[in-house]
Amino acid sequence: MVEIETLDVSFVELPAIDKVEMEIRIINDGEMVYEDFYKNFMLNNSPCVIKNVCGNWKAYNEWVLNNRINCKYFIQNYGEFEVPISDCEKIDYNAQCKFTMEVKEFMEYLKHNNKEKLLYLKDWHLKAKLKEMNLRNDFYKVPEYFASDWLNEYAEDNGEDDFQFVYIGPKDSWTPLHADVYTSYSWSVNIVGKKKWVLFPPGEEEKLRDSLGNLPLLFKKENYENIRYSEVIQESGDAIFVPTGWHHQVVNLYDTISINHNFINSCNIEKVWNALQKNLSDVEKEIEEFKDSPEYLKQCQLILKSIFGMNFKSFVKLIMHIAEKRLNQINSMPFTVFDSYNFGNNHIMFDLHILYKIFNLVENHALFNNSLIGNIISQFHDIKDRMTK
Question: What is the pLDDT of residue 375?
Answer without folding.
Answer: 82
